[in-house]
Design a protein that fits this description.
It is a single chain. It is built from 3 helices and 7 strands, in the order ααβββββαββ. It is an alpha+beta fold. A 5-stranded antiparallel beta sheet has the order 1-2-3-4-5, with helices on one face. It has a two-stranded antiparallel sheet with strand order 6-7. The N and C termini lie far apart (80 Å).
């Protein structure tokens, strides 16, 4: 009992110490693993976002350059540039689902992909020059649909129109409400 009890106590203390060291190491390894996983996921996410955003950014910059180099000063000119984009769908990145332009007089023209996997911009949205309160939507194999349209409840419209001059608006993706790409 004199030798066994202290020896048993020593073994219990050693095992407790060993368990505390292992627990501390496990906690440290968990922190390292969590940090490395977060870094990996952040890098991977940044790479995927770059793959999505870069084509849009290049396309939007090219479209701006084309509109500025054409010295567009009317909404008809900008709408004509958009229509020319629709004739060459290979120029438009697949991430762009709708292109549209609205002038301060209420004239709106846009074209959109009917389905996400469509290659062509087959649908159009437009207002008539004399009646900006009526939006006409056309899609293939469907009759034209007319809807009431209040251009002043469109945040993208107000944000893009700063004065009386027609200004271009960049490509937009329609996700319920339109969000700038």
């Amino acid at each position: 009992a004199v030798v066994g009890l202290p020896l048993l106590t020593l073994l219990i203390v050693l095992f407790l110490g060993f368990a505390l060291i292992l627990n501390d190491q496990r906690t440290e390894l968990s922190k390292i693993y969590t940090r490395r996983t977060a870094e990996f996921l952040a890098t991977d996410l940044a790479h995927h976002l770059g793959d999505l955003i870069t084509p849009l950014e290049k396309y939007a910059d090219g479209l701006v350059g084309r509109i500025k180099s054409g010295e567009c000063s009317t909404s008809d000119c900008v709408s004509a540039v958009l229509r020319s984009q629709g004739t060459s769908p290979d120029r438009i990145p697949q991430q762009v689902s709708i292109l549209r332009f609205g002038a301060v007089d209420g004239h709106l023209y846009g074209m959109f992909r009917v389905r996400e996997d469509d290659w062509y911009m087959q649908g159009t949205v437009r207002t008539e020059r004399g009646d900006p309160s009526r939006l006409v939507v056309t899609q293939p194999d469907m009759p034209a649909a007319e809807r009431a349209y209040n251009l002043f409840d469109r945040g993208w419209y107000q944000g893009g129109m700063l004065d009386r001059r027609p200004l271009w608006s960049a490509p937009y993706v329609a996700l319920g409400t339109s969000v700038l790409c």
